[in-house]
Write a structure and sequence with these properties.
The chain has 280 residues and is α+β, with helices and mostly antiparallel strands. The protein is built from 9 helices and 10 strands.
């Protein structure tokens, strides 16, 4: 299926989910030969469309991830950026991480929520549906394959903060035995739903976090390798490919000539110089 607006021309690549009110699709940009991907929400429910458009009209910040929206064949199309999924609940290894690293990830979760640019009802759904993702460098980002079936236009920042606090408690739960101040504070204040703003949540987690220790050279080196693992694996791949081609060439040359002539450049290349034989 093709989705074409005044800005973009997209072709469907895969379907993430189909719900009673909307479809979540991954599409490629035909104007860039598929090099750029997008997340498309095709909304069929007209009341839902009205709610979404009203939310975006009331949105004070212009820094939101909605790239385009338009009507097409009775549906409404909402286009968001696409990033490969690395779900936080699958890639977060809290049991093996030091407390400081876990708290840094929690802070990154809060910052991602604060800067998401989504209307509160959409951010709430994204949090509830596990659309937080963990990068290799411990940064956190959102994906936008949102099921709109349970959209509640009355959701406000406080609801999102309470949900975010619940997620943070889940991330820090493995640190409860260490009597982590951040976990204990979240547990105490979440029980009363004391948080109303993300700034309050950020302040508490930041202030209650374990003191930062200067990381050793070896640790920084490992983090450097982990952050650039794709680059180094790419180099290793090409080295292995070149070595494989050389090995095949040597094998075929040996079959054809009973020898590998070009290896003579490296072995016994100075046995004879002009008319003089040096091995006598």
């Amino acid at each position: 299926m093709i989705f074409e607006s005044s800005k973009l021309k997209l072709e469907e690549v895969s379907t993430v989910r189909i719900t009673p009110v909307n479809d979540c699709l991954i599409c490629k940009d035909l104007k860039t030969n598929g090099a750029v991907m997008y997340t498309v929400l095709r909304v069929r429910d007209h009341e839902m469309v009205r709610n979404l458009l009203t939310m975006y009209e009331a949105l004070e910040s212009n820094d939101n991830p909605l790239l385009d929206s338009y009507s097409a064949e009775g549906d409404h199309i909402f286009i968001f950026p696409y990033r490969k999924e690395r779900p936080l609940d699958l890639f977060y290894m809290g049991d093996t991480m030091p407390l400081q690293q876990s708290e840094d990830i929690c802070i990154n979760v809060i910052l991602t929520c604060m800067t998401s640019g989504l209307p509160w009802p959409l951010l709430y759904l994204a949090l509830r549906q596990g659309l937080l993702n963990l990068n290799r460098d411990d940064s956190v980002y959102l994906t936008y394959t949102i099921d709109l079936s349970e959209l509640n236009p009355e959701i406000r920042e406080k609801d999102c903060v309470v949900e975010c606090a619940r997620i943070l408690m889940t991330l820090l739960e493995s640190k409860a035995a260490q009597k982590a101040d951040s976990y204990l504070l979240l547990q105490k204040k979440s029980a009363n739903q004391s948080y109303s703003f993300f700034t309050e949540l950020y302040r508490d987690v930041r202030l209650a976090s374990a003191p930062k220790r200067k990381k050793g050279l070896w640790h920084r080196f490992l983090r450097f390798l982990a952050a650039r693992s794709d680059f180094f694996f790419g180099i290793l791949f090409w080295i292995c490919l070149i070595l494989a081609i050389v090995a095949i060439a040597m094998f075929l040359t040996n079959i054809a000539f009973g020898d590998i002539p070009w290896l003579r450049l490296f072995f016994n290349s100075f046995k004879k110089i002009g008319t003089e034989v040096l091995t006598k």
